[in-house]
Amino acid sequence: MKRKTRNKYLLYVVASVVAIIFIYPLYILFLVSFSPTRYTLDELFPSQLLSHITLANFISALTQYNFVAPMFKSLEVAFLVGALTLAVAIPAAYGLSKMNKRLANLIVVFLFMANLVPALVIAIPISAEFIKAGLFDSVIALALAQSLFTMPLATFIILGAFRAIPKDIENQARVDGMGVLRTLYTLLTPLAKAGIAVAFLLSWLTSWDEFTFAVILSPLKPTLPVIVYINITEGSLVQAAAFAAVISIPVIVLTVILQKYIKGVYLSGGLTG
Amino acid sequence: MKQKKVKIELKNLTKKFGNKVVLDNINLKIYEGELFAILGPSGTGKSTLLRVLVGIEDADSGSVIVDGKDVTDLPPNKRNIAMVFQSYALYPNMDVFGNIAFPLKIARMDKQEIEKKVNTAAKLLGISEILKSSINKISGGQKQRVALARALVRKPALFLLDEPFSNLDARVRFTAREELKKLRDNLGSTFIYVTHDQRETSNITTRVGVLNKGKFEQIDSFENLYNTPSTTWVADFIGNFPMSFISKSKDELIGFRPEWAVAGKGSMTAKLVTNELSGNINYWMCETKDGHMITLVGNMPLKVGTEIHFKLKKYNIYKNDTFVKQVNVK
Q1: Residue A175 and residue B87: Cβ atoms within 8 Å?
Q2: A143 pLDDT exceeds 70?
Q3: Which residues form a coiled coil (chain A) (predicted)?
Q4: Which residue of B53, B74, B85, B143 to mutate against A (max A Cβ within 10 Å)?
Q5: Is residue A59 part of a domain?
Q6: Is residue A62 part of a domain?
Q7: Which of A234, A253, A261, A243 is nearest to A58 (CA)?
Q8: How confident is the model at residue A269 (pLDDT cuts 50, 70, 90)?
Q9: What is the mean pLDDT of residues B196-204?
Q10: Of A111, A200, A224, B43, which sits with the fewest C-beta atoms within 10 Å of its C-beta?
């Protein structure tokens, strides 16, 4: 009994340490973006606490730079990546869930091949092809390229969700008169919606803060991460911080909304169940 | 007697998983209105047989004929066979009504018609009150009724049930069996169900097929399975106690049920090994001189090792493990 409570406290301590490590950079980001520069960047040892709040950084960032177009481009690309990824990953995961489990797991490992090589290595040949196809700087080109990285993980997650559905439910649907495709889209997809939501969220987020493809495939009409990069290279660190804060907000909001779906089950399910 | 109509016929049905033969050249005819049980120990292909019949699994060879029509190559939705899975396989994202209405919706029936049919089915199974309930909030017995209702709204040619009673409490199980029989009588439909428990076949079935290693050892009424099992394997498998055997000659055995023997007198003897109380009746498990285990009805527990005399009123003769004849002793 005593040992149990001690373990519990220990767990809280460890969790807190991990949380602080992860949250600290984000905290500094918000600190820099909301403070006048003389309290942060201009000091050698800046205060770790927020003493003076200002929106000046945001105002200058949002007025000096064209913010709206990159934001819409980022949103368009992110939603397109989410949609493209699901459109491929759902049928792919369904197919894999019907296969011999070992073979399916092996295929999933191979799907992750693209994620093993640096994005740059893939981005350069792809952009060469896209220039030839007249897709340079377009939303669809960037979305297609980013989907390369999101599809394997999405397939893996949705595969886990499909495997968790009892086989007999699908068999029953077939006995009740459904064809294969209808079973997949009207019965299994709703049943796997938690896993699909997670897959969509992760794909959306991956695209939202993706940089390498964005800077190579779409440098003239950039997305938000590219704008941040341009700001940093131009030396306007404070504006970059403001932009970065703006980028983080939808990420935080989405994660909070969808966190009830993000259970370990859907992330490990591909290998168990 | 009027010739009964064949509802489903299996011809030379064979199914293999890899090298393992699960269903071995099965031939079977089931007649209209039968309540047919497929009985066998686990892992003998009972469920596989149902799955092949309904079309979820493909047979490697042979054919399935329903109402005179070969359905072997048809997908499950074209076979007009309903199946209730062991897990009941209710759709968790729909309520009771949605589950029962589902096959009708798939068939694109109009709304009022669906409502009427669902209500009729629910009434027949006594689940009218829970139509609006969520699947997760109803009991095992109710789940089974929902699954049955969903099966029967389609008016299928026949019903297949996989271990229909195994997920129920022991107390509900008994009434569920009677209700299944009543349902059969009401609908006049053909039911086939699979079970590993012979007690679930004794009262309600028209016939029982005993499946062993992918083959039917015997297809008969339960009474005949008990009295004249066609092989020593069936004799061993059927009954609260396996049939007792003693040697007659080198390849012949004498088999008898406990109640066919009279203990206390007679020329044969056996040594008591254990007393076994089953219900109200005491049984003596004995060992004969040549090492066979036999079961006798005894009125009271006796000391282990007691020598018991017995004689037989009735017995079966088996040659090479196959039934030859039954002998009544005058």
Answers
A1: no
A2: yes
A3: none
A4: B85
A5: no
A6: no
A7: A243
A8: very low
A9: 85
A10: B43
